[in-house]
Write a structure and sequence with these properties.
By secondary structure, the chain is of the alpha+beta class. About 30% of the residues lie in helices and about 30% in strands. The chain has helices spanning about 15-25, 40, 90-100, 115-125; strands at about 5-10, 50, 55-65, 70-80, 105-110, 130, 135, 145-150. Strands 1, 2, 3, 4, 5, 6, 7 and 8 form an 8-stranded mixed sheet that branches. The radius of gyration is 15 Å and the shape is globular. The structure holds coenzyme A. Coenzyme A binds near residues 77, 79, 84 and 122.
Length: about 150
């Protein structure tokens, strides 16, 4: 991850993140619909952007749960295809873990589709435990795996 600059997200990052999002995930899924600009406004202090020479390399959008005082939640994480498997996803999560711990959080969670094997393998490598698929967890008619990790 040398040569990368990691900083907090800003509202102006939303347009470039969404511009690459569907390509980044591959194959016809409309991930843009899940990432409103409001995250880059209200959760910018708990979200991170990684850049290499000014180009977007990766991002993590997360927040400290307002309802669950022990929990932090990651809504979205993505690394550009050319930067993958070099530790950037792990580095972004480590920054988030550090921030969550500093704010008294003891657990981090996120959700993913049971079809997203890469995401489940990545989170497992980072110490998350996947739940069995839960029907209708995030929206009607769709299963989700809930991944949790203690801090
Ligand atoms: C998932 C994603 C964020 C991983 O980022 P990355 O920078 O490539 O991950 P890292 O290089 O930090 O890898 C960390 C660990 O996860 C493992 N890992 C990462 N991607 C993996 C994959 N597709 N399959 C299996 N293991 C994987 C690595 O081997 C590494 O393990 P190790 O440290 O024990 O060797 C990236 O592939 C991506 O953006 N995918 C598309 C978006 C997505 O699915 N996001 C998650 C849903 S919100």
């Amino acid at each position: 991850v040398s040569g990368l600059e990691i900083r907090h997200a800003e509202p102006a990052d939303h347009a470039r993140v969404t511009a690459v999002l569907d390509d980044c995930w591959g194959g016809g899924r409309h991930m843009v619909d899940m990432l409103s600009r409001l995250f880059f406004i209200h959760f910018r202090g708990t979200s991170f952007v990684a850049e290499r020479a000014g180009a977007l390399a990766g991002f993590l959008v997360g927040f400290l749960s307002p309802a669950e005082p022990a929990e932090a939640y990651v809504h979205f994480v993505g690394v550009s295809p050319e930067e993958r498997r070099s530790g950037l996803g792990r580095t972004l999560y480590e920054r988030f873990f550090e921030l969550a711990r500093a704010n008294g959080r003891t657990q981090v969670s996120c959700v993913t589709s049971p079809l997203n094997r890469g995401s489940i393998a990545f989170h497992t490598a980072l110490g998350f435990e996947p739940s069995p698929p839960k029907a209708g967890y995030d929206r009607p008619g769709e299963d989700r795996v809930v991944l949790t990790r203690s801090l």
